[in-house]
C-alpha cells in the first residue's frame, strides 16, 4: 500500500507540473477566452461544436486541472492518514488542495467576469504554492523509509537567511514574470540584456515591466550564486545542501538563458514553456531547502551536544 502511495504521489507531482505548464501555455497562446465567457462549460456546451486551437488549449487545461485537483485531494487525504504523525503533513495537505482550488477560482473569475493583469499575475504564483506543497508531501512519503533524515542537517544562521530570503524573493520574481506575460510585454524590449541596442533605459510602461523582471531575475541569479559558493565552501560534508544549491544554480541559469532566448527567438512557444518549467522546478528545490531549515538543528547546539560527555562514561 505504501508503495502505491509513493507512485501516486509522484504522479500527482508531475500532474501539478502539467497544470503549471498548461497555464503558461494558455497565457502564451492567448487562449484564455478560448471557451468564451463560460465556465466550467465551453461556450455554454458540454461538447463544443465549433472547435478551434484556442478552445482545445483552454479546455485541455481545464480538464487537466480538474483531474489533477481530484488527485491532489486524494493524495492529501491519503497522506493525512498514512503519515499524519509527521508534523508538517496536515498543513501541506490542506495547503496543496486549498491553493489549487484558489487558482481555479481565480481562473474561473477571469473567464466569467474578467480580471486586471495585476490580479491575473497571481494565478501562476498560487499554483506554484500548491505544487510546492504537493512536492514536499511526496518527499515526506519517501522519507518515511528513513533513507534520509532531514533533521540530521545542520544549518547556521547565514545559510538559513539565504534560504528564507531567496524563496521569498523568488516568489516576487515569479510574479513579475507572470505580469510580463499578462501585460503582453514579453517582446516589449527587442534586445537583451538591455532594452534596446541604442538605449539602456526603457521609455514606456511595457518596457518598464519587461526590464523590471529582467533586473529582478538577474538579482535572483546573483543571490543564488552567492549562496551556492557559500554552500560549496562550508557544507561539503552535507551533500544534500552542497548538491542542492548546485542544482538550484543550474536551474536559475537555465531560467536566465531561456528568458534571453524568448527575446532572441521572438517568443518561441517551446522556449517560453521551458522558462515556466525551470522556475517551477527551482521553486520546488527552494521549498525543500525551507523544509530542511525548519527541521535542522542550530550549529551551536550540535557542537554543544558533541562536546557533552555521556553520563555512562563518567560513571
UniProtKB/TrEMBL annotation:
Asked if Transmembrane helix is a keyword of the record, the answer is yes
Its transmembrane ranges are: 7-26, 63-80, 92-114, 120-142, 163-180, 211-229, 241-264, 270-293
Q: Which reaction does it catalyse?
A: Fe(II)-heme o + 2 A + H2O = Fe(II)-heme a + 2 AH2
Q: Name one GO cellular component term.
A: plasma membrane
Q: Where in the cell is it found?
A: Cell membrane; Membrane
Q: Which UniProt keywords apply?
A: Cell membrane, Disulfide bond, Heme biosynthesis, Iron, Membrane, Metal-binding, Oxidoreductase, Transmembrane, Transmembrane helix
Q: According to its record, how does it sit in the membrane?
A: Multi-pass membrane protein
List its EC numbers: 1.17.99.9
Q: Which residues bind heme?
A: 213, 275
A single GO molecular-function term is: metal ion binding
Pathway annotation: Porphyrin-containing compound metabolism; heme A biosynthesis; heme A from heme O: step 1/1
Q: Which residues form a coiled coil?
A: none
Q: A Gene Ontology biological process annotation?
A: heme A biosynthetic process
Q: Per the record, a Pfam family?
A: COX15-CtaA
InterPro entries xref list: COX15/CtaA_fam (IPR003780), COX15/CtaA_HemeA_synthase (IPR050450), HemeA_Synthase_type1 (IPR023755)
Cofactor dependence is on: heme b
Q: Which family does it belong to?
A: Belongs to the COX15/CtaA family. Type 1 subfamily.
Q: How does it assemble?
A: Interacts with CtaB.
What's its job?
A: Catalyzes the conversion of heme O to heme A by two successive hydroxylations of the methyl group at C8. The first hydroxylation forms heme I, the second hydroxylation results in an unstable dihydroxymethyl group, which spontaneously dehydrates, resulting in the formyl group of heme A.
Q: What is the name attached to this protein's record?
A: Heme A synthase
Q: What is the lineage of its organism?
A: Bacteria, Bacillati, Bacillota, Bacilli, Bacillales
List the gene name.
Answer: ctaA
Amino acid at each position: 500500500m505504501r508503495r502505491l502511495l509513493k507512485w501516486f504521489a509522484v504522479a500527482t507531482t508531475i500532474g501539478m507540473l502539467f497544470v503549471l505548464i498548461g497555464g503558461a501555455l494558455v497565457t502564451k497562446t492567448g487562449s484564455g477566452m478560448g471557451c468564451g465567457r463560460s465556465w466550467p462549460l465551453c461556450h455554454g456546451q458540454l461538447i463544443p461544436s465549433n472547435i478551434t486551437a484556442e478552445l482545445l488549449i483552454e479546455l485541455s487545461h481545464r480538464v487537466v486541472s480538474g483531474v489533477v485537483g481530484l488527485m491532489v485531494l486524494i493524495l492529501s487525504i491519503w497522506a493525512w492518514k498514512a503519515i499524519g504523525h509527521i508534523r508538517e503533513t496536515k498543513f501541506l495537505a490542506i495547503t496543496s488542495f486549498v491553493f489549487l482550488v484558489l487558482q481555479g477560482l481565480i481562473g474561473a473569475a477571469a473567464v466569467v467576469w474578467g480580471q486586471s493583469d495585476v490580479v491575473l499575475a497571481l494565478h501562476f504564483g498560487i499554483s506554484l504554492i500548491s505544487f510546492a506543497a504537493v512536492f514536499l508531501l511526496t518527499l515526506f512519503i519517501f522519507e518515511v523509509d528513513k533513507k534520509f533524515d532531514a533533521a540530521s542537517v545542520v544549518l547556521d544562521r547565514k545559510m538559513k537567511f539565504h534560504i528564507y530570503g531567496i524563496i521569498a524573493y523568488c516568489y516576487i520574481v515569479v510574479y513579475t514574470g507572470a505580469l510580463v506575460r499578462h501585460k503582453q510585454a514579453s517582446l516589449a524590449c527587442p534586445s537583451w540584456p538591455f532594452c534596446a541596442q541604442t538605449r539602456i533605459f526603457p521609455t514606456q510602461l511595457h518596457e518598464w515591466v519587461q526590464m523590471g523582471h529582467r533586473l529582478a531575475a538577474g538579482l535572483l541569479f546573483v543571490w543564488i550564486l552567492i549562496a551556492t559558493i557559500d554552500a560549496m565552501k562550508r557544507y561539503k560534508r552535507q551533500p544534500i545542501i552542497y548538491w542542492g544549491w548546485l542544482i538550484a544554480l543550474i536551474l536559475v541559469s537555465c531560467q536566465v538563458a531561456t528568458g534571453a532566448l524568448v527575446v532572441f527567438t521572438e517568443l518561441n512557444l517551446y522556449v517560453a514553456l521551458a522558462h515556466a518549467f525551470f522556475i517551477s522546478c527551482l521553486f520546488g528545490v527552494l521549498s525543500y531547502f525551507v523544509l530542511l531549515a525548519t527541521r535542522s538543528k542550530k550549529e551551536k547546539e550540535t557542537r554543544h551536544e558533541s562536546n557533552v560527555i555521556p553520563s555512562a562514561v563518567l560513571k
